[in-house]
């Protein structure tokens, strides 16, 4: 019955939908390497760090490369991905996300953004959401990927709130697991079949109210 004092939002799939841009950039890379990935393959990459994604992708294609080449390939993909990011603006904020974050803050809750992306700061600036949070923890600050709880524990520390008083909003199964590993409650954004382990699942922040949020205070 711990009171809720902070909301921690994942970025990709919760506030913006950059997943398709990642997909297009990875696809371009795999095509250059002589194979292809599908949208289903892309689902495995949600919440996974850039280097880990690259390892998964190369294993799909059965391609092995040297450590140096690994970094070159990751950089190449990232440059293509950034071409899409540079064109983003506030119209790409997912429905209801900005409004929900604002309502949470106005009700006195602290807000952190926790993303595995090293580009999180750039994306938040592009969509003009760079002043709506109290802490940003991203792939530049934390190394170990979700389901490791590091990113959420670090967010709680920066907000000066105990983990049991935090609620995590996540679209990735590994992100829900990371929240639970951090001792936090979770709200899944997306399919309730896929995110069945979350304490609550909604299709988007657009249908989420503060009343729904506070109903989670009854979960230990
Ligand atoms: C997010 C996305 C992942 C992506 C990761 C790293 O978690 O869901 O698909 O691989 O960020 O992104 P980056 O921008 O650092 O390559
Ligand atoms: Mg995500």
Automatic annotation (TrEMBL):
InterPro entries: B-phosphoglucomutase_hydrolase, Beta-PGM, Beta-PGM-like, HAD-like_sf, HAD-SF_hydro_IA, HAD_sf, PGP-like_dom2. Substrate binds at residues 10-12, 26, 45-50, 77, 115-119, 146. Its EC number is 5.4.2.6. Its cofactor is Mg(2+). SUPFAM superfamilies: HAD-like. It comes from the Bacteria. Binds 2 magnesium ions per subunit. Mg(2+) binds at residues 10, 12, 170-171. It is an enzyme of class 5 (isomerase). Pfam families: Hydrolase. GO terms for molecular function: beta-phosphoglucomutase activity; magnesium ion binding. The active site is at residues 10, 12. It catalyses: beta-D-glucose 1-phosphate = beta-D-glucose 6-phosphate. Belongs to the HAD-like hydrolase superfamily. CbbY/CbbZ/Gph/YieH family. This is Beta-phosphoglucomutase. It comes from Solitalea canadensis (strain ATCC 29591 / DSM 3403 / JCM 21819 / LMG 8368 / NBRC 15130 / NCIMB 12057 / USAM 9D) (Flexibacter canadensis).
């Amino acid at each position: 019955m711990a009171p809720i004092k902070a909301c921690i939002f994942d970025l990709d799939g919760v506030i913006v939908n950059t997943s398709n841009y990642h997909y297009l950039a990875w696809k371009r890379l795999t095509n250059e390497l002589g194979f292809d990935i599908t949208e289903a393959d892309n689902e495995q990459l949600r919440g996974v760090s850039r280097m880990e994604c690259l390892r998964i992708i190369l294993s799909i294609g059965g391609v092995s490369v040297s450590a140096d080449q690994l970094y070159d390939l990751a950089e190449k993909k990232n440059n293509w991905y950034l071409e899409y990011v540079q064109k983003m603006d506030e119209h790409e904020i997912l429905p209801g996300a900005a409004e929900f974050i604002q309502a949470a803050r106005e009700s006195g809750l602290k807000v952190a953004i926790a993303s595995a992306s090293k580009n999180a700061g750039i994306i938040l600036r592009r969509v003009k959401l760079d002043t709506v949070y109290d802490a940003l923890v991203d792939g530049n600050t934390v190394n170990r990927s979700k389901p490791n709880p590091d990113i959420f524990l670090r967010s709680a520390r920066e907000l000066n709130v105990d983990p049991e008083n935090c609620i995590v909003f996540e679209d990735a199964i590994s992100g829900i697991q990371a929240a639970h590993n951090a001792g936090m409650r979770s709200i899944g954004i997306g399919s309730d079949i896929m995110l069945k382990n979350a304490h609550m699942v909604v299709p988007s922040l657009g249908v989420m109210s503060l009343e729904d949020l506070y109903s989670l205070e009854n979960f230990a």
